[in-house]
Design brief:
Number of strands of chain B: 3
Largest sheet of chain A: 2 strands, antiparallel
Helix content of chain B: 25-40%
CATH class of chain B: Alpha Beta
Radius of gyration of chain B: 21 Å
Number of helices of chain B: 3
Distance between the termini of chain B: 63 Å
Largest sheet of chain B: 3 strands, antiparallel
Oligomer: heterodimer
Strand order of the largest sheet of chain B: 2-1-3
Number of strands of chain A: 2
Number of domains of chain B: 1
Strand content of chain B: 15-25%
Order of helices and strands of chain A: HHHHHHHHHHEEHHH
Helix content of chain A: 55-70%
CATH topology of chain B: Ubiquitin-like (UB roll)
Bound molecules: fe (ii) ion
Structural class of chain A: mainly alpha
Number of helices of chain A: 13
C-alpha cells in the first residue's frame, strides 16, 4: 500500500468514527488505533484483576454475613470484568497468555489506586463508594467508545458496577452513623482514599498528550479533567449527606461555573506510585504471582482431563 | 507452553429465556467444551442472564469478510419492492 493510500484509509476511518459508527474486530483500523486499544483494554483488565486484592483482604473478616456475601459477590464480579476485558483485547489480536505474563512480570501497568493498603474495614466502604464510583464515571463514558467489543464489555460492566458503589456507600453510611470511633474510622478512610480517587482519572488535560488522539478516534469521549469534575460534583453532596468531610480545604462550590473548585492534586505522589513506589506495588504483584502459581496444578489437571477425554472419544468412535 | 496449546477460545451464546434466540455475549478460554460451559456459567450468567448456553470453538466459525460487505449486501439495497411500503394501497382498505 502506498503512503497516499494509507493516509486515505486513515482519513476515511476518522470520518467513519466521527460519524459515530462502531468499529468491529475484522474491520480495517489504523495500527495505532489497534495498539492504543490493546494497551488500554489490557491495562483495564489488569486493574480489574489486581483490584480484587485490596478487598479480598477483608472477605474473611467482614463484620456480618450480609457484608460478607456482598463483598464476595463484588470481588467475583471484578474477576468477571477482567475476563470480559481480556476477551475484548483478544478480538484485536492480543494473546491472552502474553497479557497475563506481562502483568505477572510487572511489565504491564494497572490502575495505581490498587497499590494503596486497606488497613481497616472502612476501606471497604471507601473503595466501593469512591474507587468504584470513579471507575463508573470512566466506564459509563466508555459504553460509547468506538470499538464495538470494548463498548459491549463496558455495558455489561456498568450494569454490575452500580451495586458495587451502593454497597460501599452503605458501609460508609452505617459507620458514619455509628459510634464516634466508627465515624472516625469512616472519616479516616475518606481522608486516605479521596485524593488517590481523584488521581484515577489521570493527569490533567494539559499533561495528557495522548488524550487528543483518543478523543479524535472516539475511544475516549470526555477528557480526564471533565470526568474528574463530574465525579467531584456528584460525590461531595454524598459525603455531606452522611456527615463526612472531604479532606480538601480549598473545596468550594463555584456558583458561576456550576461546579466545585478544588485544591491542587499531588501529582508527584501519582507518578511515584506509577513508578512502582506505592505502599503495596510489590505486595500486589507477589500476591498475583502466588495465586497464578498455586493455580498451576488445576490448569494442568484440566488439560490432562481434556486430553484423556478427547483420546477416549476418538478411540470409541473408531471402534464404532 | 501446554496451557497455550490446549485452552482454546470459545464463543459464548446465551438464551435469556424461552422464546428468545441465543445471543452472542463474548468469549472465554477453556480446555474443553464441558469446562467452557461451566466457565460461561460463572463469567456470563452471575445474575440469571440465561437459561441455556452454547459454546462454540472460535476457530469453528467462518465469517464473511468486511471487505466483501459491498458485493454481499449491496444487491439488497436497491430492492425497495421487497418492502411493504413500496405498494400503494388506499387507507380506506384498512390495515394490511
Ligand atoms: Fe469492575
Ligand atoms: Fe467494581
Amino acid at each position: 500500500m502506498s503512503k497516499e493510500e494509507m493516509l486515505n484509509l486513515e482519513a476515511r476511518f476518522e470520518r467513519y468514527v466521527a460519524e459515530e459508527n462502531k468499529v468491529e474486530p475484522k474491520d480495517w483500523m489504523p495500527e495505532k488505533y489497534r495498539k492504543t486499544l490493546i494497551r488500554q483494554i489490557s491495562q483495564h483488565a489488569h486493574s480489574e484483576v489486581v483490584g480484587m486484592l485490596p478487598e479480598a483482604n477483608w472477605i474473611s473478616r467482614a463484620p456480618s454475613l450480609r457484608r460478607k456475601v456482598a463483598l464476595l459477590a463484588k470481588v467475583q464480579d471484578e474477576a468477571g470484568h477482567g475476563l470480559y476485558l481480556y476477551s475484548a483485547a483478544e478480538t484485536l489480536g492480543a494473546d491472552r497468555q502474553q497479557l497475563v505474563e506481562d502483568l505477572l512480570s510487572g511489565k504491564a501497568k494497572y490502575s495505581s489506586i490498587f497499590n494503596y493498603p486497606t488497613p481497616t474495614w472502612a476501606d471497604m466502604g471507601a473503595i466501593g463508594w469512591l474507587v468504584d464510583g470513579a471507575a463508573i464515571a470512566n466506564q459509563v463514558m466508555l459504553c460509547r467508545t468506538s470499538y464495538g467489543p470494548y463498548a459491549r464489555a463496558m455495558v455489561r460492566i456498568c450494569k454490575e458496577e452500580s451495586f458495587h458503589q451502593r454497597q460501599g456507600y452503605e458501609i460508609m453510611m452505617a459507620l458514619a452513623a455509628g459510634t464516634p470511633e466508627q465515624k472516625r474510622m469512616a472519616q479516616d478512610a475518606l481522608n486516605r482514599w479521596w485524593w488517590p480517587s481523584l488521581m484515577m482519572f489521570g493527569p490533567t488535560d494539559e499533561h495528557s498528550p495522548n488524550s487528543a488522539q483518543s478523543m479524535k478516534w472516539r475511544i475516549k469521549r470526555k477528557s480526564n479533567d471533565e470526568l474528574r469534575q463530574e465525579f467531584i460534583d456528584k460525590t461531595v453532596p454524598q459525603a455531606e449527606f452522611i456527615g463526612l468531610t472531604i479532606p480538601d480545604p480549598d473545596l468550594k462550590w463555584n456558583d458561576e461555573k456550576g461546579h466545585y473548585d478544588f485544591g491542587e492534586i499531588n501529582w508527584d505522589e501519582f507518578y511515584n506510585v506509577i513508578a512502582g513506589n506505592g505502599k503495596c506495588n510489590k505486595q500486589r504483584l507477589e500476591a498475583r504471582n502466588k495465586a497464578h502459581d498455586e493455580g498451576k496444578w488445576i490448569r494442568e489437571a484440566a488439560n490432562a482431563y481434556a486430553e484423556k477425554r478427547a483420546k477416549r472419544e476418538s478411540t470409541s468412535s473408531s471402534v464404532a | 507452553m501446554s496451557q497455550k496449546d490446549n485452552w482454546k477460545i470459545w464463543e459464548v451464546f446465551i438464551r435469556s429465556k424461552n422464546g428468545i434466540s441465543h445471543k452472542h455475549v463474548g468469549s472465554l478460554h477453556a480446555p474443553d467444551a464441558e469446562i467452557a460451559i461451566k466457565n460461561a456459567r460463572d463469567v456470563y450468567t452471575r445474575r440469571s442472564e440465561g437459561i441455556s448456553i452454547w459454546v462454540v470453538p472460535s476457530d469453528a466459525i467462518t465469517a464473511s469478510r468486511p471487505d466483501e460487505k459491498e458485493p454481499l449486501f449491496a444487491p439488497a439495497d436497491d430492492k425497495v419492492y421487497r418492502h411493504p411500503t413500496f405498494y400503494d394501497i388506499p387507507d380506506d382498505v384498512g390495515h394490511m
